[in-house]
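Structure in, sequence out. Go:
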């Protein structure tokens, strides 16, 4: 553990909980733990520890990343879906938190309301980590930043353009993550889906301190000029399925196509990557896309040589592991 950064016992409910130095530290630690895993070294840094994985929302990447991250360091992870416990039904969230805090060394939560993960942090007495809420997705942003740094060797001064639903949890956390690490961030979205003004103000202040900028744009063609990273997400978040037709109408002009990627001016130089937190509706191989076709990104972009979406998915595991180690070691 760095003498300057000590995160023992620290919760992560939103990216604003971390200092700029802590974000950079976690990215660096993630990289070291990733290298260690690939070389076959197992230190079992968290041997004897136990983590509760409390999931209201289903998951592929988050659940698997957290489970493998824990196992790699000798830590036991117990998966608890909402139907497995009395959570919020026979028993209050606060009481559930107090029970789990007596039995586990940390709680990893994925669900709906930000207030729920906040109650867990307040009542459990152990580190609590937000694996996703409607408002925030901080562990995803850590994986995103690690992926960017691996590709470019730096974060400072790069330009990341997020295109699509500009007020969802991924866009919110990504804005703060870029601001804290000196990445120039552009949120390109229709006015109906603009991020909150308070969040933009907070991120702008952080970015100014770190020599970068935060901007909101409406036109994808102008937004992507000079971009090093183009990032998109699903148009309809989990729990908002009733808004699907409206979102498709609003966001169809924001689909990431190969023409849009060429518009960055960085394709030929190779100074360009595409990111998506997954799952992605890019082809005709899901129940949804058989009806609608590709939505937020075309298959051509998703499968291109500059797509780093599966590096990004793998990095969920390494960054979550770093968070566990930093908080519990």
């Amino acid at each position: 553990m760095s003498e300057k950064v000590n995160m023992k016992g620290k919760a992560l409910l939103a990216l604003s909980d971390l200092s700029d130095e802590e974000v950079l530290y976690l990215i660096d630690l993630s990289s070291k733990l990733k290298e260690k895993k690939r070389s076959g070294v197992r230190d079992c840094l968290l041997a004897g520890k136990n983590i509760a994985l409390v999931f209201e929302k289903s998951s592929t990447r988050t659940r698997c990343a957290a489970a493998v991250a824990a196992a790699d360091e000798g830590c036991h992870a117990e998966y608890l879906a909402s139907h497995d416990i009395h959570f919020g039904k026979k028993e209050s969230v606060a009481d559930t938190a107090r029970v789990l805090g007596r039995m586990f060394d940390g709680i990893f939560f994925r669900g709906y309301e930000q207030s729920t993960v906040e109650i867990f942090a307040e009542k459990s007495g152990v580190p609590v980590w937000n694996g996703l809420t409607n408002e925030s997705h901080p562990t995803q942003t850590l994986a995103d930043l690690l992926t960017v740094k691996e590709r470019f060797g730096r974060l400072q001064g790069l330009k990341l353009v997020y295109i699509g639903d500009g007020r969802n949890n991924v866009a919110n956390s990504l804005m703060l993550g870029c601001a804290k690490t000196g990445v120039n961030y552009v949120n390109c979205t229709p006015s109906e889906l603009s991020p909150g003004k308070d969040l933009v103000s907070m991120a702008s202040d952080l970015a100014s301190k770190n020599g970068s900028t935060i901007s909101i744009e409406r036109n994808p063609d102008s937004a992507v000029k000079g971009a090093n990273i183009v990032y998109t997400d699903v148009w309809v978040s989990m729990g908002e399925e009733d808004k699907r037709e409206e979102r498709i109408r609003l966001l169809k002009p924001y689909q990431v196509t190969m023409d849009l990627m060429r518009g960055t001016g960085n394709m030929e130089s190779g100074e360009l990557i595409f990111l998506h937190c997954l799952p992605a509706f890019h082809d005709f191989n899901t129940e949804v896309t058989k009806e609608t076709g590709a939505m937020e990104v075309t298959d051509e972009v998703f499968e291109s040589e500059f797509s780093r979406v599966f590096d990004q998915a793998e990095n969920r595991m390494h960054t979550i592991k770093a968070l566990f180690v930093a908080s519990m070691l």
